[in-house]
Design brief:
The chain is mainly beta. The termini are close together. Helices cover 0% and strands 56% of the residues. The chain has no helices and 35 strands. The strands form 9 sheets. The chain has a 5-stranded antiparallel beta sheet, with no helix packed on it. β31 and β32 form a beta hairpin.
Length: 454
Amino acid sequence: MMCRLIAIRIRRIMIVAVIRLPLLFLFSISQFLISPKTVVADWEKTYKPGDGSTKYCCSAGQTQDGGYALAGWAWCSPDVRRVYLIKTDQAGNLLWTKRYTGVANHDEGYSVAETQDGGYIIAGFTGEMGPSIWCNAWLIKTNSSGDTIWTKMYGSGGEGGYSVAQTTDGGYIVAGISLKYGPVNWDIYLIKTDSAGNSLWTKTYGGPNNDYGYSVAQTEDGGYIIAGYTKSYGAGGYDVYLIKTDKVGDILWTKTYGGTRDDYGYSVAQTEDGGYIIAGETKSYGTGTPLYSNVYLIKTDPVGNTLWTKTYGGASSEMGYSVAQTQDGGYITAGLTFSWGGSPDAYLIKTDPTGVAETSNVYKSGYCSLDIVPTIGTGIFNISFYIPSSVNLQSVSLIIYDAAGRLVETLVSVKNEPGYYNVTWSPKGFKAGVYFVKFTAGNFNLTKKLILIQ
């Protein structure tokens, strides 16, 4: 039987702040019915807290003092990851950083929010990567200086948290994933806690296949809205999945959006009219193909019925990771674009209330990129990487190692010039299990996880 390889994408995100905006946007996006414009940000920062580790930023927001809080994770050694929290002032100047250690060697932070007491709440997971693989959803509560007040773990060994928000009662709501059965079968996981992080209740949602929860918010009626994607329901492939619950997590209704190819939902917000706005990516509509995607924006009424959808994209791939309604009734969407420059660049789209673009800006990141795409029906995988001219290039390597950290194959080990490169890899003869592809260019490191299934 031909092997299948599933790539779990780890996003490396450039931090771009446009301080005139109400939020710090980390991502980039694509053409919004108009050609994108490359702009110079009011300021642009790269943060290297000093321990030499490679860091990934997954979440950020503006704080009450006008500065910004950023959360993510870092490679502290080839086999150890730790959660990081970074605090800056209004101009993006680094004020402090904190590192948080979980129960084993593998911790990742995916969402941060400022709390009512001026501290911070971080959601992610903590666990073990190696011969035995397990993880728990993880909450970290800090004071205003980032010092830990408490941490809590949730689940039985196969859970992760992707989104956290403080609720009106002072507690927290967390959305993520929970392992259902087998090595790669997930349900959406919802956790409600009190103000001390004690679990009040948990819920799982999903069908016979994979279902993921990436964004959660409390709604005006005291319930919750969850956005993610599902392979259990919908029109085919993955579809955007929206779940509305009451205040105790019981489902009131669900909706799916998308076509016969893969479509993903990453962010949801309730709008002034009581409906919802969802941002994600689509391969079913727009200029997307089986290999490329467009930003996908969906506007619904209060019960999830589609009012309109928009796609935005160029010749390559674009994703929308964050969306919010603006004071004029329009929307601001942030994500990534690969269509203008090859590397993942920050992209910001401002629309009117009907989703028509008013502005569309690319913020050049100068970051390396790594992408893995299967060639359907052949068992061969195209692995592409991009090296920008800004990288202090000494050597380039592309290696594959197993879950125990053993090197199993070297695909590239040379000194390359800046540019876009593509290699192929056939997993024929490899055993089923977890593998990692590690890309190194100068001081830059990026690793993607692969699960090989017979």
